[in-house]
Amino acid sequence: MKIVKTLLELRSARATFTGSLGLVPTMGYLHRGHLSLVQSARAENEFVAASIFVNPAQFESVDDLDDYPRDLERDLDLLDTHNVDLVWAPDRSEMYPHGYQTYVTVNQLTSGLEGGRRPGHMRGVTTIVSKLLIAFRPDRAYFGQKDAQQVCVVRRLVADLGFPVEVVTCPTVRESDGLALSSRNARLSVDQRQASTVLFRALSAASVAFAEGQRDGDKLCGLMSDVVATEPLADARYIAITEVETLQDLRQLPEQVLASLAVCIGQVVLIDNMVLGET
Amino acid sequence: MKIVKTLLELRSARATFTGSLGLVPTMGYLHRGHLSLVQSARAENEFVAASIFVNPAQFESVDDLDDYPRDLERDLDLLDTHNVDLVWAPDRSEMYPHGYQTYVTVNQLTSGLEGGRRPGHMRGVTTIVSKLLIAFRPDRAYFGQKDAQQVCVVRRLVADLGFPVEVVTCPTVRESDGLALSSRNARLSVDQRQASTVLFRALSAASVAFAEGQRDGDKLCGLMSDVVATEPLADARYIAITEVETLQDLRQLPEQVLASLAVCIGQVVLIDNMVLGET
What we know:
Chain A is of the alpha/beta class.
């Protein structure tokens, strides 16, 4: 596995790949969710690359950025074990050189859910993803369904700017009690970790009701809200039932909708989602 | 010369190029300025491509967009004569598909000069240039010094997003009386055409004073302003002496500065600039 720091090194390494390339962009502190992306990339491409970069542009607060867990050595071991060919782990100054002032924005799709609550977050995501697509020129790029809005926004970005890449969405990987894997889970105390299953329980309640024919968006949101309210350590930041691709709010629901929520547990914000009516 | 309409056709045609590619992005209605870009591209690359697209995103008013001159057939003849290999002339719906909402912005550099007077204009430029660089993957891209701010902004965009392309700036091509070539010149009446030399006369006055040692930015701007004021048909929109790369206003001047101005002549806005102290 080749590990590079600079963009020039990356370009040289990229130029040696003669077949299809799958890219797994990450912020490091890898868990089984990331590794499932790597496995999909490995199965579908001749070459697999990953990036490790905790992107300051997508954090709204310096505290949140500082608190984000990091373990580069372990990450590199894991990627090596999973037969990744190339890893780009640039410094901040390599990614955002002196005088940096260029940003990529996706407008409407970023106005709700996480984007609506975290000013600048989605601009950070779309800018870094654009930079990674330009740098790696992958044939396929892999994202987890856990960040549902991110996936929608990246799909729109790719279509709008005309990147010749297939965006592949991989299913959310969960702990046995339903908690979606996230690097942020490492910051939960034992009590908070127990409380954190409330996201999955809320989504499951909405899923059951949807399967039983409930098509009133407000009622489904109310159901999720009631579940979150049973957990004293949890505080709902948003609870939404939206259209799957446009992420617009819905009242009368079609056969497939996206149920998503963000919950604060102590200082940690957890997000999760389910596509209801998925076959 | 291959002429393509869709992005997919463009990608197929691009894939057949085995050597270096020079790109000349244009909005059509080609003049000798554009053709000098093509000639530079031809001399420096194995393959030469051009784009013709009147980009609605960089016009602030529908009238200005509608009034922009077009002559696709003549443009294609000229490009063919100049040994261009590939032309992309997409429809608007190909460039901005249904639901389009992704934009590339360069912040500080676009706040003054043309960018400061035309809200959205520079965002239109940076978005379309990004899309062209993604679509063509050129080794070199050619721009005219006449649009000095555009060149600065594109250079920043390329550095920031990490496009593997060399930005080549070609000198402004002028009529024998000094008027910088522009597709907009076609819209000038005979009287206005005569008045339009005022831009070059103002820049020349600043250039002479600078060569004679004048290093007070305000005085140089005053000189240019005086020249423009002698022309009843002309109305200065802005007159500026700025740093060459950052485009920031200057009082005490270094050895090289950018003198630029925009002048309204009737309904037509003309811009021009000179780098003073250029060796």
